[in-house]
Specification:
The protein is α/β, with parallel strands linked by helices and 381 residues long. It has a domain at 4-78 and 177-357: Luciferase-like domain (TIM Barrel). It has helices at residues 29-42, 58-65, 85-99, 113-118, 125-143, 181-190, 201-217, 236-246, 252-262, 268-277, 309-321, 334-345, 354-357, and strands at residues 4-8, 14-15, 24-25, 46-48, 73-78, 103-107, 148-151, 156-160, 174-176, 193-197, 223-233, 285-287, 290-291, 304-308, 324-330. The strands form 3 sheets. An 8-stranded parallel beta barrel has the order 1-4-5-6-9-10-11-15, surrounded by 8 helices. α1 runs parallel beside α12, α5 runs parallel beside α6 (181-190) and α6 (181-190) packs across α7 (201-217). The chain is globular, with a radius of gyration of 21 Å. The two termini are 25 Å apart.
Length: 381
């Protein structure tokens, strides 16, 4: 089984606990560089950079990390309604060339009407998807080398073109996630990879089947991915204890405020995430090893797979059996959890860290030196 495993850059903040400043850490360029370089070294194929007013700008973050990485890919937000499609295409082509073909784009239509209004966008949910479809047609066309004339309801361009093409042909891959009917139509017609948040298997299977059927009507095929957190430990009991610790500083007032804020979103996906836990902390295991605790206070991806390495790998393989080939994972704090995932989960997925693929040097791996001068005993094979 060949899977693409991505990690996450926490540009909106990071720490040991959700919903509190206790155990939080400063997220600056140095820290983001550490996470990106660790992800590359450990064998992750790329990193998702989030978007929104609570995050650092994903384009600038991605551009800043190109020079300090070599193979890592960057999944960057493409924002219809906030950006001109032709200007966004020129930016995308430039970033693709300067990175040597290491950028992917995540089409984000938005879900918070308050934030969208602050960015000058006042379209309804349905209108945003109309605009996103028009945007994507123009964006893809000019990146493919076409001169585009387009007279749509929301976008009109004449003689639009990109003079300096991207490295990836016909354009950098386009990712997208959305759970509404119009979102599935957009995915089927326009995108390369449809990504779902981590929902129970039957619900993900239903979405995949719907997008597949709609894509077939357009004579297209679409790849599939899942965005989910992971809490992996040496034993499943330790993993569940870590999940409990992650929300141990949450009180009912904080949860209620978070859910009230998220309830204004018109995103069907966000509504589905909220329905999994209903603001309650007493029934958070919503499917085997699938925990909805993250969504008590976090918008977007709100579930985590919890268990030892073999168990989490088995759950991922169940998604893979549905046709999923890409997973975007994350965990708190993101630097340490990247190592835990690589050490405890990757061996069960046959993923080899880059550090082991490089020529061996005179430096041999060993644990902490005991009593300042004794090497640990080798583990019997």
């Amino acid at each position: 089984m060949s899977l693409n495993i991505f990690w996450f850059l926490p540009t909106h903040g990071d720490g040991h606990y959700l919903g509190t400043a206790q155990g939080a850490r400063t997220v600056d360029h140095s820290y983001l560089q550490q996470v990106a370089q660790a992800a590359e070294r450990l064998g992750f194929g790329g990193v998702l950079i989030p978007t929104g007013r609570s995050c650092e700008d994903s384009w600038i973050v991605g551009a800043s990390l190109i020079p300090v990485t070599e193979r890592l890919k960057f999944l960057i937000a493409l924002r219809p309604g906030v950006m001109s499609p032709t200007f966004a295409a020129r930016q995308a082509a430039t970033l693709d060339r300067l990175s040597g073909g290491r950028v992917l784009f995540n089409l984000v239509t938005g879900g918070d009407p308050e934030e969208l209004a602050g960015d000058g966008q006042h379209l309804s949910h349905a209108e945003r998807y109309e605009a996103a479809t028009e945007f994507t047609k123009i964006w893809k066309g000019v990146l493919a080398g076409e001169t585009v004339d387009f007279d749509g309801k929301h976008h009109q361009v004449k003689g639009a073109k990109v003079l300096f093409p991207p490295v990836q042909k016909p354009h950098p891959p386009l990712y997208f996630g959305g759970s509404s009917e119009v979102a599935h139509e957009l995915a089927a017609e326009q995108v390369d990879l449809y990504i779902s948040w981590g929902e129970p298997l039957d619900e993900v299977a239903e979405k995949i089947a719907d997008v597949k059927a709609k894509a077939a009507k357009h004579g297209r095929t679409v790849r599939f991915g899942v965005r989910v957190h992971v809490i992996v430990r040496e034993t499943t009991q330790e993993a569940w204890e870590a999940a409990d610790r992650l929300i141990s500083h949450l009180d009912d007032e904080t949860i209620a405020k978070a859910q009230a804020s998220l309830s204004r979103f018109d995103s069907v996906g966000q509504q589905r995430m909220a329905s999994l836990h209903q603001g309650r902390r007493d029934q958070l295991e919503i499917a085997p090893n699938l925990w909805a605790g993250v969504g008590l206070v976090r918008g977007g991806a709100g579930t985590a797979l919890v268990g030892d390495g073999a168990t989490v790998a088995a759950r991922l393989k169940e998604y893979a059996d549905l046709g999923v080939d890409t997973f975007v994972l994350s965990g708190y704090p993101h630097l340490e959890e990247a190592y835990r995932v690589a050490e405890l989960l990757f061996p069960h997925l046959q993923i080899t860290p880059q550090l082991e693929q490089e020529p061996r040097s005179y430096i041999s791996p060993f644990g902490e030196i005991v009593a300042n001068d004794i090497l640990p005993k080798a583990v019997a094979s």
